[in-house]
Amino acid sequence: MAGQTLLSLEHLSTHYVSQQGTRVVRAVDDVTLALGAGETLGIVGESGSGKTTLALTMMRLLPPAAHIVSGRMMFEGEDLLKKSDEEMRRVRGKRIAMILQDPMASLNPLFSIGNQVAEPIRVHEGASPRTAWQRAVQLLKSVRIASPETRVSQFPHEMSGGMRQRIVGAIGISCEPRLLIADEPTTSLDLTIQAQYLNLLRDLQREHGLALIFITHNLGIVAKMCDQLAVMYAGRVVEQGPVSRIFNAPTHPYTKALLGSIPRMTDGGERLTAIEGQPPDLANLPVGCAFAPRCPSVMTRCRAEAPPEFKTEPGRSARCWLAEPLALRSSAA
Amino acid sequence: MKQYILRRIGYSLLSLFLLSLTIFLFVRVTGDPVALLTEPGASQEDIEAMHRQFGLDQPLWVQYWHFVASFITGDFGQSFYYRTPVLDLYFQRLPNSLLLAAVAMVLSLVIGIPSGILAAVRVDGFWDSAGKLFALLGLSLPQFWVGLVLILVFSVSLGWLPSSGSGTVWHLLMPAFTLGWYFAAAHMRLTRSSMLEVLGSEYIKLARLKGLPEALVIGKHALKNALIPVITLAGINLVVMINVAVIVETVFAWPGIGRLLYEGVTFRDFPVVQAVVVIGGSMIILVNLLIDILYALIDPRIRLES
């Protein structure tokens, strides 16, 4: 791990509770993760596996039905869960920034680009309108917008999708946060623009010493961008560790299946493997391991008892009974 | 686009034709105006002379033709009752209606927009329920009843406000509130739903992720977007308010065009009734036509459909 720990989530759980209190959806369940300063973590999983809820939990901007029910969220030595709403507001956009899935809809159509980029600088740093506006021009330049002096006073509808995405990126880094969470930031872009944007993010990361969390279902992006990987399934992190280690030797059958479903240039025309079955209903999880009904290596024990998190190597763990024999001795979770 | 506009204008003219024909026939169903204008026991000859004077002895289609012709030339004829040009009467009363509508509009916006925002921000909370009740009553209570209750409370019991007439600010309060409540309810409901839609948008989420204070998120980012449809509706409603205040103006004896219409109906003053209804109807039809054209200019999908 490079540098000191920036963010560490400890046994974090976020549940959605229906109005009558009868239906509980465990969107994020007992998640433990750590991220060093300047590192990049990829969080992958199917739709509905709790990735976005985990991100919104870190920002503490959940919909009213969602509740953070347990855990700790240590960021630069402070527990974010202990902060008041007002203190947390001053963390958002300033120390932790997040950019959203849909860049086309993320900008307010009625305000100029400069106004929207300068806004966090004015709010968090109390900068004068003129200073903030000049900073906005510089930010546009740093996200490689051509002729930023004219672009800054234009409106979102005058920009292409790729430009809007980079503007959203500029808003993200406007107050020089320590951590940037990007929720599927490239899904709506075409491949060329996507590659440019990823390179841009990597350059910004290097220049500003930014830690990045990438939420994606694209393992190609993880391979290109990330140091660490966390695989989520049914609200839980089922496997995590260094990207290269996991790609070379996945422990969890779900991770194996995910890796088996990516096309590779070297596979001489082999069939891609699909994962059989449907993702589980989070309000009605099976008794044992949530992946058991779809798992090709399922054992009797899996259906009766959910596996704990086994530490298999330093900085690496898996929630699977298959990992038990590999578990380091000290790590009974 | 040209074809679309021509077709809209065609529909507008058709509406206007149907409106004029309807009011022409309905007003004649109310009875003979001469019966109200002559002494009881007037001679048959006097009555017939008066019929001739007003042109009521002619066949209906001829009368209708005169009415349409006078409307096109912008001369609405003479009032049977006042014996003065109808247009003079109309323009005497119009400023009062404009004043009442303007004040009622301001009231409806001052009440409707903030309460709509509050209801959307505290959705399903106390203020949302209170707002729903206020809107339900505003839309469903008949205006004559609201007016009478206000008179009962503020004029009869408390003696604070004059019950009828015009001239001071105090005379304006009760009629403006009675007229404005209905529209306040409409503006509140639209503000609420439009605000709720905006609050669910991605750019509001991003505004919160930027760490903006909630006051800025609501007051700057959400409000400006949410008000666009409300302002459109308010513009249409202003024209409607000028023309539909018949009951309010009658209850409070407010000398506007609504009251003029009521008097016209009471005295069977055909030219007055026809003029007030057709001029008011033309205004509303014209505003709708302009909106149709503006929407087509803004939204290319509407243009293509035509």
Describe this structure in words.
The complex is a heterodimer of chains A (about 325) and B (about 300). Chain A is of the alpha/beta class and about 325 residues long. Chain A has 12 helices and 12 strands. Chain A has 2 domains: about 5-95 and about 175-265 and about 275-280, P-loop containing nucleotide triphosphate hydrolases (Rossmann fold, 3-Layer(aba) Sandwich); about 105-175, no CATH class. Chain A has helices at about 50-60, 85-90, 105, 115-125, 130-140, 150, 160-175, 190-210, 220-225, 245-250, 255-260, 300-305; strands at about 5-15, 25-35, 40-45, 65-75, 80, 95-100, 180-185, 210-215, 230-235, 235-240, 310-315, 315-320. The radius of gyration of chain A is 21 Å and the shape is globular. The longest helix of chain B has about 35 residues, at about 85-120. Chain B has 14 helices and no strands. Chain B folds into 2 domains: about 1-80 and about 270-305, no CATH class; about 100-265, MetI-like fold. Chain B has about 300 residues and is mainly alpha-helical. The interface of A and B includes residues 102 and 119 of A.
Give the domain tally of chain B: 2
Compressed to H and E, one letter per element, the order of chain A equals EEEHEEHEHHHHHEHEHEEHHHEE
Tell me the distance between the termini of chain B. 8 Å
* Biggest sheet statistics of chain A: 8 strands, mixed
Name the CATH superfamily classification of the largest domain in chain A. P-loop containing nucleotide triphosphate hydrolases
According to DSSP, the number of beta strands of chain B is 0
Could you tell me which chain pair has the largest interface and how many residues each side has?
Answer: A-B, 27 and 17 residues
Under CATH, the topology of the largest domain in chain A can be stated as Rossmann fold
Helicity range of chain A: 25-40%
Q: Beta-strand level of the residues of chain B, as a percent range? A: under 5%
Number of strands of chain A: 12
What's the CATH topology label of the largest domain in chain B? MetI-like fold
In the CATH hierarchy, what is the architecture of the largest domain in chain A at level 2? Answer: 3-Layer(aba) Sandwich
Provide the CATH top-level class of the largest domain in chain A. Alpha Beta
Structure annotation, total helices of chain B: 14
Secondary structure class of chain A reads: alpha/beta
User: What number is the mean pLDDT of chain A?
Assistant: 87
Widest sheet, order of strands of chain A? 6-7-8-3-9-10-12-11
Output the number of helix runs of chain A.
12
Shape of chain A: globular
Give the oligomeric state: heterodimer
